[in-house]
Description:
Helix 3 (123-131) links the parallel strand 5 (109-114) and strand 6 (136-141). The model is unreliable at 49-57 (pLDDT under 50). By secondary structure, this protein is an alpha/beta fold. The protein contains five helices and seven strands, in the order βαβββαβαβαβα. It has helices at residues 30-37, 100-104, 123-131, 151-158, 174-194, and strands at residues 16-24, 43-48, 67-80, 83-89, 109-114, 136-141, 166-169. The longest helix is centred in the C-terminal third of the chain and has 21 residues, at 174-194. The chain has a seven-stranded mixed beta sheet, sandwiched between helices.
Amino acid sequence: MIFGRSERGTSPVEPVTLKILVAGGFGVGKTTLVGSVSEIRPLRTEESLTEAGRPVDDTEGVEGKHTTTVAMDFGRITLREDLVLYLFGTPGQERFWFMWDELSEGSLGAVVLADTRRLEDCFAAVDYFERRSIPFLVGVNCFEGADRYPAEAVRQALDLDENVPVMLCDARDRESVKEVLIGVVQHAMAYASERGQALTS
């Protein structure tokens, strides 16, 4: 069992630390996801949206959004006593994509957040991880008032390989996000096993 508890009385072990990216389009909920599940106060690098940025920041569908991540979000969650995840939320706007290469260095895998109202906004993230052979899971953030679609419909719309997991989630809900993170770790471990790789801390 990957997420089973260790036996009582055994000596504590040094936890394995794994790096997970949280990517997706502008306003899809990446900062919310990291904040809802992090056991430490999340590090955020947000700036206010300005009039000068309107020509390049497409806020259609997320008109209530007033800030944007300009570097990264960072959080940490302990899934079990010997397994800790470090979460790095990537900036969603195209002008910050140059940072993705640095953030993805050494990552185990990624969560690509999707919004069914702006599904095309996550194409770039899907393409990025596919091209670099980084295992990823698509988490469909179920916004209030948005139409709900089954996971398989989202898979077809994004033209995903059948082995890429698709999960419905609520980025505001800790337990929902934990299920997504467990899913991406399990997927990444299976992905590594298929290629004869070993996970290292």
